[in-house]
User: What shape does this take?
Amino acid sequence: MRILIVEDEAAIATAVKRALAADGHAVDVVSDGRQALEWADTYRFDLVLLDVVLPGMDGFAVCSALRDAGVAASIMMLTALDDVQDRIAGLDRGADDYLAKPFSMEELKARIRALSRRRLEDRKPRIRIEDLELDPATRDVWRGDRPIHLTAREFALLELMARHPDQVFTRERLIDTLWDADFAAESNVVEVYIRSIRRKVDEGRRNGLIETVRGTGYRLRTKAPR
Ligand code: CA
Assistant: This one.
């Protein structure tokens, strides 16, 4: 699995990274929430090991932000020993599991195996629109045989439209669904994202799947115009 450790205590982060890497996982370490969000937007992690006590944003806020950004990784919170409130807070914010500090590496590895099995069982079916294919479980995208790399938010936007083919989405609807309430609705963020997704998905195609409906919004169409 590809794993991101979010932990500001270097000794713990290093020990966990070493143990998991020895188990064959690809492991990255960041030391605060801001970096965690950047990394999770850029790379596709299967699991985020998220410490609660972090400088700046705490682990709960990071967990909420990851889920708001559409990050599909499993999240395991590292909480204080026996703090029931911490566990509830984490689970309520979209964490899949928690582990109380200090923990044994063997228990951590066993929990990771369990989460990995659960991810496979929960695997949602792939979505297909013409020759565009999306895998919601892994966030992999293909156009024909060509793999396409999208950021977490680009994937979320494309997935939303792909689940409702031919339906027109207004800018406001897309912003409401994919961005938080503080987001400035007058910005051109939707246009920027659509342009980027279109470049990746429709590049080199005569008939694009992503259609701009003038004055209204955007849609993914199932039948390209002749
Ligand atoms: Ca910490």
